[in-house]
Amino acid sequence: NFEISRKMLDAGLFACLHKHHNIDELVEFYRQLMHIDYQYGDTYLKCLLAVGLKDNGIEKVREIKRQLGITVSVRLDVPNGYIPQIKQLVVDLRREFPDMIIFVGNVVTGDITEDLILNGADVAICGIGGGGQCITRRQTGVGRPQLSAVIECADAAHQVGGMVCA
């Protein structure tokens, strides 16, 4: 929510807003962030907006740009970064918003990490089925130990100038 996001940003951390906020709430929140003098630079860039494949998240990003003149950063909020539409969305977003910070995932292998970064992502989010709250492994039988995934993905990301978030 906005309150927790503000506390995280105050501490110099990244925050991520869920995709269910309406556009008026988002515009007002980002407007406030633009007018606060943070020691960490343009804080609105560190406040990611979650965007899915089937919601109107990209339209929200466009509307924030239209109203405020800023490009917000996004977290492509999908449980599986291996579906072809994700890579295409990264390509399309990078083309439309060249200054956008793009977090995308979830991935657990170096090859897809490298592919997503080379196609425009800044950060690959690592982890499928490794956490206590994640039901992917129980539902699908798919998952990988987190440390193994982070090591492989980080190595691949760093070789092509990207980063990972575990």
What is the oligomer described by this structure? single chain
Spatial shape: globular
Side by side, the strands of the main sheet go 1-2-3-4-5-6
What order do the helices and strands follow? Answer: HEHEHEHEHEHHE
Mean pLDDT: 88
Largest sheet: 6 strands, parallel
The tally of beta strands, per DSSP, is 6
- Report the uncertain regions: none
What's the helix count? 7
Write down the Rg: 16 Å
Structural class label: alpha/beta
Helix content: 40-55%
Q: Which percent range describes the beta-strand content?
A: 15-25%
Distance between the termini: 21 Å
Describe the structure.
With 166 residues, the chain is an alpha/beta fold. A 6-stranded parallel β-sheet has the order 1-2-3-4-5-6. It has helices at residues 2-10, 23-34, 57-68, 84-96, 110-118, 136-140, 146-159, and strands spanning 15-17, 47-51, 74-77, 102-107, 123-126, 163-165. The longest helix has 14 residues, at 146-159. Helix content is 45%, strand content 15%. It contains 7 helices and 6 strands, in the order αβαβαβαβαβααβ. The model has no long low-confidence stretch (mean pLDDT 88). The two termini are 21 Å apart.
Key descriptive features of the protein:
166 residues, alpha/beta, six-stranded parallel beta sheet, 7 helices, 45% helix, globular
Topology:
Elements: H1 2-10, E1 15-17, H2 23-34, E2 47-51, H3 57-68, E3 74-77, H4 84-96, E4 102-107, H5 110-118, E5 123-126, H6 136-140, H7 146-159, E6 163-165
Parallel strand pairs: 1-2, 2-3, 3-4, 4-5, 5-6
Helix pairs in contact: 2-3, 5-7
